[in-house]
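Note to self: keep these together.
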Amino acid sequence: MIKIAPSILSADFLRFGDEIKAIESAGADYIHIDVMDGHFVDNITFGPGLVESVKRITKVPLDVHLMIRNPEKYVEAFARAGSDVITFHIEATKNPIGLLDRIRTMNKFAGISINPDTPESKLSPKILARCDWVLVMTVYPGFSAQKFIPEALPKIKEIRKILDESNYSKIELAIDGGVKLDNIAGIAGAGATVIASGSGIFKTADYKKTIQEMRRVADIASK
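Structure:
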């Protein structure tokens, strides 16, 4: 079954607690939290304090996506704050293997993300052996409500093929950026298993209806 992870970067910050409760009631599988530092990407968003606050009010697992430089300096803080999944960018570290190992020693799922212009060949077998998640960016990271880059679909298909043919089929293949109800079928059909969506959920009138329909369409497409 496809898992849906509403991205809270698109939530109404004036009603933040209510928004978290709403997506929990709507059946979210994960809560996707985009952490940006103003250096790796041109935006500043959340820190460990926000993750800790969200953790206190929901039982939904927290999928924390670090779009920051020097992620090695911060993974412990985000782990202590209550992250269940910690994903960092391969472009942001010189030692992805060591960092994946560190995250796993903290009993967290370890994920690695690649930008639209980063080739899937960067995901070496040694890296994949330590991954619980691979996150493919389908927009250039930094801001919400961007349009999905259709050229990302072949990359998703190729990574799905790599995972399946390398005995890494249990790794979650997550997608982040521009996902909406009108394009989720193609994304799921390409092999995604976890789909983060911000405005595609939070800018709709009925979160539960949207998530259910996304999951229904994606499950059909993935068969």
